[in-house]
Write a structure and sequence with these properties.
The protein has seven helices and 15 strands. The protein folds into three domains: about 60 residues, Roll (Structural Genomics Hypothetical 15.5 Kd Protein In mrcA-pckA Intergenic Region, Chain A), CATH 3.10.290; about 80 residues, Pseudouridine synthase (2-Layer Sandwich), CATH 3.30.2350.10; about 150 residues, Pseudouridine synthase, CATH 3.30.2350.
Amino acid sequence: MDEILNVRVEKEDAGSRLDKFLAGELPDLSRSRIQKLLEQGNIRRNGQTAKNSEKVAEGDRLLITLPPPEPLSVEPEDLPISVVYEDEDLLVVNKPRGMVVHPAPGHYSGTLVNGLLYHFAGQLSGINGVARPGIVHRIDKDTAGLLVVCKTDRAHQGMADRLKVHDIERVYHAVVYGNPKEEQGTVNAPIGRSDQDRKKMAIRPDGRRAVTHWRVLERFGAFTYIEAQLETGRTHQIRVHMKSIRHPLLGDPLYGPGGLSGEDRAFLRGVSQEDYGGQVLVAKVLGFDHPVTGERMHFEIDLPDYFERILAALRKNRR
């Protein structure tokens, strides 16, 4: 059965080329996949078959028809799932660092979805199909922290609507390179897929609106412990925005400097490389109005052990 996606063009995206707009709006679809869908007539704009060279206007309604993918067998796996909250409509889980959220090329097992299918078989929303049951948003493989999983389609649709209007509180903690001059700041810079490297996102004029508010929690000299709050939720948003102000995240394999200097290593003396082998970023706080009951929900987790070990070393070696 075809999957149908509906996308509405907001004011800030007016004038963007259709294919570039969709690449930013639907990061799970590659640019080549979008081009193929256009060629097949599977994307309609305001009821008419769309062309990739068209430019979108505010209020445009896009209907994307996704033909059934190649059969994908997602096997349930007895993986540990840390459930922070559960009711009949949704779960809030604490995803560990190193776990991919849903199956994708190169990661067909060991994902959060594999574990969810084992522990919550038959209890997950079906809007995203077999490969992503219950998943309404995601965090990167090496980012730990809080994630909503929907058990019913009504909850899934409600959460998706809240995400679209940025009505979800998401606060992250991170360790970044350098010592920012200010105590706090805001990065307001649009993000889209990088032309140079399809694995990366980049700040670009035709990107999607992206706003990150950050503040310093603790300074160590060569590194700083910060809090970052998302006003929007674009792919790799905090990682791209902090790099743009010359304070990339410690351990970030895509946006970091690519290695530690001798001075940096001195600050991290006593910490194993495994602890900062991926971006040091945690989704620490999650708040939202329950999509079914309307009740205000608020969740906060402790920092993971590896994060605490890094902070302990930085405090000990502070200069």
